[in-house]
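TA notes. Do not distribute before section.
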Amino acid sequence: MKSLEEYAALFEKLGLTELTVVDGDQKICLKKQPAPAAPGLTAPEQTQAPVSVPPAAGAGTQPPAGAEARPAVPANAGPAARTGEVVRSPLLGVFYARVNGEARRLGEQVRKGDVLCTIEAMKMMNEVTAPADGTITEILATDGALVEYNQELFVIG
């Protein structure tokens, strides 16, 4: 990137609150203070609930077309309620579910090293791979959404 305007545009596009770039002996630091919440307002809730399918029921099969996704865990349950291997984002960026034109689906069998998704950061596409063999039991991110470092993306059971 050549100019401060390009960094500012990326900063806004990704919805960041802080960005520090070091290039040789130059350092750029952009920070945004979150707007104070108005009295009586609460933070917006997650727009898409995580979806889940039990490993035995979904192993090797696709959900029927038009089937409703169901919540993975109760709304008040924490991460401890999940079973299986959690795949987390290795960096902050934009989550893309399609890999080679295909999006991973619930109940799909994956092998260790299979690409699950890509995350775009600074115009670089970074592949996220399956850490183990298993079945995708939860998809916790939405295509095109900004994901944070260490955010849960998938659960493999």
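Switch to the second chain here.
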Amino acid sequence: MLNNIILASKSKVRKDILEKNNIFCNVEPSNVDEDMVKQSLLNEKASPEIISKNLAELKANKVSSKNHEKIVLGADSVIDLRGELISKPQNRAEALLILKKLNGKEHHLISSVCVSKNGSMIWNYTDKARLKMKDFTENELEIYLAKIPDSILYAYNVYQIEGEGRTLFSEIIGDENTIMGLPIKKIKEYLEETR
């Protein structure tokens, strides 16, 4: 259906979502220093939503500036816990701390996407899903984490909604593709309109 698109991300999950929707792409990671950008934006008191939007745009624009006339898709997802930005864990100890922070609480998963051409954004969209985590003991959280392989843990933040992670939540309101990192319905609408 759609091709000649570059995905500015090494996320296998995002590539799979695109391909399941007949959008075929080449992958070219942006290699943006996300931690540095996040810290800079946090210093400016930016909200998690603004951080997500900025990172998606930065990734898309960086790859787009090297690929003239091609459509480049950049994306970013963050957890917003009552205004606090929660990033992907760097190790298992950090993953446990994140789960303890989210334990029994409601939070938002924000996914932003940006389409760029010739180094500039031409379209963007941000979607939010609301999730309420059940109450667990620390031991239960440790048992849950022990079941999650590293490849999944570091790719999906601390939960994989289409797998074992679903058991963590008492309530999920929103699009599962958004939770997995790509609000595909709006992306498809946009790409189909501009063909």
